[in-house]
Fold this sequence. Notes:
By secondary structure, the protein is α/β, with parallel strands linked by helices. Helices cover about 35% and strands about 20% of the residues.
Amino acid sequence: MPLQSFPEMTNISTVHRITSDDFSQVLQDNLSEQLRLKIDQAGLAYELLTAEERDQCILKIVRTLQSPNIVRTGSHRITDWEKGWSENLDLINNAENLDALLPRYFGKHEYVRWKGELVRAKTEGFDYKVLSILVEWMLNRYMKKADSIFEFGCGPGYHLALARSCNPNARLVGLDWATSSQAILSKVVIKGLLSNLEGRNFNFLNPDYALDIPPNTGIYTVAALEQIGADSEAFIQFLLNKRPAICAHLEPIDELLDENSLVDSLSILYFRKRNYLHRFLPRLEALERERRIVIHNQQRTYTGSFFIEGHSLIAWSPV
């Protein structure tokens, strides 16, 4: 997909601040006043890279791609996720707020992606703050009128607080294949940190058809389907059978990136090397041609971490 045109940024030494107008331009959408306020208060800032710094970043990505030790996704990693979310469970046991739900893999790199290019983050927690803005944008756009909201692959449940903020009355269900996730959500309810919330065990590769999805339910995923590579068909068939009102995903979608861009191409190669989600969008497009679904939106967000632009948006509904 051709790169969207953004105003050129030429002053490398200047700290550039990201405003709600910048996000509105990047996402090509009118944002809610609440989200605009959140963005303007986030204090997001970055610096452009010199040519030498950019080269060093690209070299690091290339060398990582060449490493034989890079970890591929798949069902074999269930123990890794159990261990990771168990750390959050230990934290929430002694916490009085939802900050303990934040995974520990954020903030690893000084360099991030903004407007499709590598930049140096000048704000602590830059990558998580940007992701939370994207999630809230998606939820505001598609989940505000849902009676129930299901997050599949919810992990420790840190996005569910945003879902509650977006829709105060909806029933919230967080689903994950790691049992430590359900223990975390149970503890969140016991502590009174979130209400009308439940956790359920769910495996994308072997969906539980006994799970009831009521009418007017919205479902979403955030960097969760990325873990199943090309094996999304079972989950797609599950959703076609259960017929939620809306499905929204912030996931790595290589078909929306520009393979003629060096930075985008490295992201695509990283998707492949890690065995991240692929062939998902073409499958949905085929279903739309068969008139079994309607795709409401598909767009990249021009934001990301050091290695990837991993949060493109797809929204669709079963017919």
